[in-house]
Amino acid sequence: MFKSRVFVLILAALVMSVLPASAQEEGESLVVYSGRNETLIAPILAQFTEETGVAVQVVYGDTAAVANQILEEGANSPADVYIGQDAGALGALSKAGALAPLPSDVLERVPDVFKSQQGEWVGLSARARVLVYNPTEVEALGLELPQSILDLTKPEYAGLVGWAPANASFQSNVTAMRVLLGDDVTAKWLADMVANGAVSYGSSNTNLNRAVASGEVVLGITNHYYMHNLKKQDPALNLEQTVFPAGDPGSLVNVAGAGVLATSAKPGLAQRLILYLLGSNAQTYFTEQTSEYPLVDGIAVNPALIPLDSIVQPEIDLSDLDDLQTTLAMIEASGALDQ
Description:
Blueprint: H1 11-14, H2 21-26, E1 29-34, H3 38-52, E2 55-60, H4 63-73, E3 81-84, H5 87-95, H6 104-107, E4 122-133, H7 135-141, E5 161-163, H8 168-181, H9 183-195, E6 199-200, H10 205-214, E7 219-223, H11 225-233, E8 240-242, E9 253-260, H12 267-277, H13 280-288, E10 293-294, H14 324-334
Parallel strand pairs: 1-2, 1-3, 5-6, 5-7
Antiparallel strand pairs: 3-9, 4-7, 4-8, 4-9, 4-10
């Protein structure tokens, strides 16, 4: 998997909230390894602790690096639950036999397209890959928006496109391109993007979106929710987004998801956490606070989002995004990480 560092915190600093005395006496606790950013997931994990009295100790890091840590620890891993930023790392853990089957009362809550076909992980929220753009700069330059992610290598977009090649969501998108288009086409696209002057923002989609809004670059490929979260702070931000049409590889809809470790000594408690994250409180949190798409019926979607059913997604099984190591090697070989 990826050669990113896992930022493992001291265990005492990982408890997300103070337990009530009854829970301390019972000693109920879970260890979660999270590839989701702490600012996005920590509040709802703290709410789980507050409502259930179950302590949640969290190790945060890059999605793929945390998954790799689990594989390296093997049977000695203290993790009970893995929360990933994308389906690729979840698929890799499933392929390695590191995840346990989930019960039907968990699986039945999530549409088939957003869960493991082997029943070993489920999506918790959905995020669409989008093209963000600065409308003022697009008009001033007389640009037409590209109709495919593959079009971004054309001369008219030279030096105008931002990306975050060290980000796990981008890397999953590249894996999807490999599955859909083949390795040769994908490797050429990466190399052509670098040659066309694509501007790297490392792993930061937030910085990428800010750069588009400021006019530092004009276009960017990113997840949908970054723009919406920034516009909560500044509604006048000069930033819009669109999706590529006709099932384009650039219109991948991925998930943040979770699975229970096969080595967990507390599978029932671990499943309880996942059920909580699929409950109305958590699903509403993902919708209102992180601007993602809920995956459970009956939850109101943020009206500012592009309707999920209007996005023509590429036909792909998210479990097939599990070959992360080859993808990273391809991105590294292109020079995208050296920018």
